[in-house]
Amino acid sequence: MATGGGWAPARSVERHGAPPPRGGGGGGTRSKSVAPGPRRPSPSPARSRPAPDNGGSSDSCRVRVSVRLRPKNSEDLAHGSDFDSCVELQPESKRLKLKKNNWSCESYKFDEVFSENASQKRVYEVVAKPVVESVLEGYNGTVMAYGQTGTGKTYTVGQLGKDDPSERGIMVRALEHILSSMSFETDRVAISYLQLYLESVQDLLAPEKTNIPIVEDAKTGDVSLPGAAVVEIKDLEHVFHLLQIGEANRHAANTKMNTESSRSHAILIIHLQRSSRIKEENSSLSNDTHNIFPDDLPLVLKSKLLIVDLAGSERIDKSGSEGHMIEEAKFINLSLTSLGKCINALAENSPHIPTRDSKLTRILRDSFGGTARTSLVVTIGPSSRHYSETSSTIMFGQRAMKVVNTIKLKEEADYEILYKKMEREVDQLTSEMERQQKLIKSEKMQLDKKFKESERSFHDLRMTSNMRIENLEKEKCQLESTVKTLMRDLEEEKGQKNLLSEQIAELEKLLNKNKQQQLENLSRTKILTDTTKEHEKEMEELLRQLQEERHCSSSLKDRMSVLQQELCDAQSSAQESMARELEKKLTKVTEELTSQVQSLKEKISELISEKEVIYEELKSTQEKVQQEMWQRQGLEDQILRLERSTSDNYAEESKTSYGMVRSGSGLGNAAFVSKSGKIREALSGQRGTISKIFEEVGLPNVLALLKSEDLDVQIHAVKVVANLAAEDINQERIVEEGGLDALLSVLETSENTTIHRVTAGAVANLAMNGSNQGVIMNKGGARLLANVSSKTEDPQTLRMVAGAIANLCGNEKLHLMLKQDGGIKALLGMVRSGHADVIAQIARGIANFAKCESRVISQGHRKGRSLLIEDGVLTWMVANSTRFSASTRRHIELAFCHLAQNEDNTCDIIASGGIKELLRISRESPRDDTRNLAKKALDSNPAFLREIQ
Ligand code: ADP
Ligand code: MG
């Protein structure tokens, strides 16, 4: 039953609103028929469990009825023997005998009979305790007192016994029992205290609340008084306090309404709520519920205990309230009458139970024929004066004993906890949802931002890509034009290369022709040699014949002298005629012989002259062969350079050209050393041998041999030194150990051409070293070399001398001394040789000189016109620049261009006709740097420019 005041928001949705259907008629008494009819299925999460029954079936429970006999009071005693006691109790058999008179007596059986001596405690334990225990287990319960006014209903039910605990009635004891049995942590107990009078419900705890409506749940049939106060209690003191308030309010109300408390019903409703968790296996919740609630569903047992102190059951005319109108009196008794009717109907298993006829029966709907465990105590007095009332009370009790209830466990989901839990979950879900929404929002914003950024970057990218494409297209166009230009250049170069290849081919052809000629010449020489040999043989034969003839002639002379002697003898013997004949013969023979000798002599002289002619021819042929060999070497040199220039694409050649005459000034053929592997091998073999000799003998000993008296030894010693001097590491050491002095002395004193050639080569090698160059000059080396050059026509010697001077030309510090010592003049003088190798060295020397001089002048270390001009070098260069091999020409051109850089040479260059040459070089020179030098000279010199115009 529920409530108004603020407790228990959870409402039971289960209700056995209607009493179980009764078996239709039939003989069996109600009290025996405990089997309930089919129950309605539970429409809610609430569940029912079979309840322990004190004596019935597991879930059906008959209303328990006890009788309590009040002790005789003063009134009873006052009437004394007039009215003896009409009641006799037989507690052993729980029976009561009611004596109508001395001869009429009836016996009634009850569940318990309490004598006048029965204690409050026992009455509680028998009447109320089982119900309270049942309520504590979750079932509804009702304890009710019924009886005539003054029989002890209020004493039994509502006695407070605040000071005397033994006096305490059922209300106090029940609450005491409940408070001691429940847990304050999980359980709650609250009370409502009401009074029903004239069909009006009043609140005894809140007296201002009157006429409180009774509400029935249409669905569950559950009855509640939502307007009544529900006060939660914590301890017994509170119970006393509330019950006292209730009592006081009941008294005040009755005074106000001019009524007696015996005419009103007092109803104490104890609301009990206990939590319990029942696991799945025990649960009988519907499937729907399982879907809604978790496995360990928080369940709550909600039960109510109604303790009712009914109004006096006596008839109204006897109640002493005569002030009331008869209708009003009926109204006063309506509830009690209705209760009696309902119990009768229930006891008689009537199809209609008039529950709705009064408020009391509506409130007690669950107590009789409902789901509550109900215990009724009927109170009676002992006096026979009230026989009729006592009898009707007993009959009421007897009928009530036939009423069977079907008790049901009121268990339902703890919606409060569930609600809170759900609320928490909803709150969590809401906050989670909000968080997710925020997250989504921020993600969306970020995505938007990213999208915009992407769009921007895409746009930028497109712009840059377009720009790049444009640039690339431009570059492509440029590259295409460059490629075209390059192709053109390539074509030109190809043409040049073809030209060069043609030139090479021509030169090779020429070379082959020369080779052929040489071979021819060689064969001719061989023929000549053979012829000469034959002639010599012939001459020998002739000489031998001559000798023989001479011998013959002498023998003939001898014979003649013998004959003359014989003649004399004959003359003397007078055979003069015979003598004359003989003399004639002799003269003839003599003449013959003389002519023979003469002819032989002529023949010999002829042969001798022929021999001389042949020798002449042989010599000229040899010279021719030599000349051709030189030419061939020149050509080979030219081919080599052309090949190199072709392959290196005109690579830098000045280093080798202007460098020291390393191989060229050493022993052997310069051109061949760089070209012929065989000769190089031979030369390195030779050098190896010389190094061995040098190691064995030691430099001082080798140098000592330079002064040897033996020419061969001296020549070989010079050769060894020259070879050693070809190696960089030896050059300074040879000079330091006096090798240079020895070589210069040999050069000065010797008249031998080989010595000259080899020594000049050795000096040339030593002159490759920069520090040696000054020593050579200081020791008069240049003068000696000039002297040698003037005395010899041997091209190899001249080549060595020219190489040595060319090396010295590469040292600008020595230029003046070189000129003064006649080095320049001597260098130019060797041009007379006409030999290509000699001229190549001369050109190299001049280029070295001009280049170094130009550098010194450009750096401002010297001024004035070139030292080369005075000795006629400029004139020679202008006149001969185009005559020689390509490399020689390049040297000459380069030297000329360097001279043209010096303004002090301007007049001489113009005077020598060099402008034309300069112009030619600026256009035709195969070397870029030379062409540029020529152009630079022409452009930077106003005099030249004027001259050109
Ligand atoms: P009722 O409520 O039925 O009108 P009460 O409880 O007021 O009757 O009892 C009337 C009087 O009888 C009271 O004074 C009460 O103390 C007394 N009384 C009733 N029953 C007993 C009892 N069993 N033992 C002692 N006194 C009793
Ligand atoms: Mg009373």
From TrEMBL:
GO CC, alphabetical: mitotic spindle; spindle microtubule
Entry's transmembrane regions: none
Main localization category: cytoplasm
Compositional bias annotation for Low complexity: 45-63
Record keyword Nucleotide-binding present: yes
Entry keywords, A to Z: ATP-binding, Coiled coil, Cytoplasm, Cytoskeleton, Microtubule, Motor protein, Nucleotide-binding, Repeat
One of the GO BP terms on file: spindle elongation
Region spans: Disordered: 1-63
Localization, UniProt: Cytoplasm, Cytoskeleton
InterPro entries for the chain: ARM-like (IPR011989), ARM-type_fold (IPR016024), Armadillo (IPR000225), KIF11-like (IPR047149), Kinesin_motor_CS (IPR019821), Kinesin_motor_dom (IPR001752), Kinesin_motor_dom_sf (IPR036961), P-loop_NTPase (IPR027417)
SUPFAM superfamilies on file: ARM repeat, P-loop containing nucleoside triphosphate hydrolases
ARM repeat ranges per the UniProt record: 697-739, 738-781
Pfam families per UniProt: Arm, Kinesin
CDD domains from the UniProt entry: KISc
Residue stretches making up the Kinesin motor domain: 62-403
GO molecular function: ATP binding; microtubule binding; plus-end-directed microtubule motor activity
SMART domains: ARM, KISc
Entry superkingdom: Eukaryota
Residues reported in the UniProt entry to bind ATP: G147, Q148, T149, G150, T151, G152, K153, T154
Stretches assigned to coiled coil: 412-446, 483-638
Family: Belongs to the TRAFAC class myosin-kinesin ATPase superfamily. Kinesin family. Ungrouped subfamily.
Name of the molecule in the record: Kinesin-like protein
